[in-house]
Design goal:
The chain is an alpha+beta fold and 197 residues long. It has 8 helices and 4 strands. The protein has a 4-stranded antiparallel sheet with strand order 1-2-4-3, with helices on both faces. The structure holds flavin mononucleotide (FMN).
């Protein structure tokens, strides 16, 4: 059995917050792992305190526990490869952007705000010793229909959450990817302009 957690910490160029360096997206979740309700409370509370445009708070979530009918629906909407591993996660969280308010006025920053809230949520999850893996690979319209979401609510990602599992239990090529070095572009590639100190 291999839990590959410790080797996944980012080799950052300068020190950053521990939870940010240690967060990573596994595909090996413990098929018997559980997430206590208090941990879900903390994850949602972290998301709740995300900043948003005009404090509009356009994030909505569906939280489905493994074995429940809702989990079955969410899992069924996932793309093929995601379906092979995400069924082991204790929880699947659907992140949903409220793209228009109740009067139909557009919320142009709702996807941006939702993404930030999921970043907060995943940081809290990792701080609590669990793991999270975001997925955009799912059938949006199938999930919208399965969850009876109106047009002003856009499902954007499904986030697998739970305790880490055995990397050896993954099929190839996912097993190899689980151990592959984590890579990022250099900061100099990201910054278009930076004034000197
Ligand atoms: C919006 C978004 C969509 C993603 N979709 C998928 C997906 O469908 N399947 C998957 O296995 N990983 C998916 N990922 C995970 C990324 O591949 C992963 O975050 C990236 O490779 C960096 O790895 P790290 O999170 O371990 O640092 C997604 C991540 C984000 C933020």
């Amino acid at each position: 059995m291999t839990l590959v957690d410790t080797v996944r910490t980012a080799a950052t160029a300068v020190p950053i917050l521990e939870v940010l360096a240690e967060r990573w997206s596994p595909r090996a979740f413990d098929p018997r792992g559980e997430v206590e309700d208090a941990a879900i409370d903390r994850a949602l509370e972290a998301a709740r305190w995300t900043p948003s445009a005009n404090n509009s708070q356009p994030w909505r979530f569906v939280v489905a526990r493994r074995g429940s009918p809702t989990f079955h629906l969410v899992h069924g909407s996932l793309a093929g490869v995601n379906r092979t591993w995400a069924d082991k996660a204790a929880v699947l969280v659907v992140s949903i952007a409220e793209v228009a308010d109740a009067d139909g006025r557009p919320r142009p920053w709702s996807h941006y705000d939702l993404g930030q809230s999921v970043a907060y949520l995943t940081a809290q999850v990792h701080h609590d010793g669990l793991h999270a893996h975001q997925m955009a690979g799912f059938d949006t319209e199938a999930l919208r229909a399965a969850l009876s979401l109106p047009p002003r609510l856009d499902p954007v990602t499904v986030v697998a959450v739970g305790p880490l599992g055995d990397a050896d239990a993954l099929p190839e090529p996912l097993r190899e990817r689980e151990r592959a070095p984590r890579q990022r572009r250099a900061v100099t590639d990201l910054v278009l302009h930076r004034d000197p100190a």
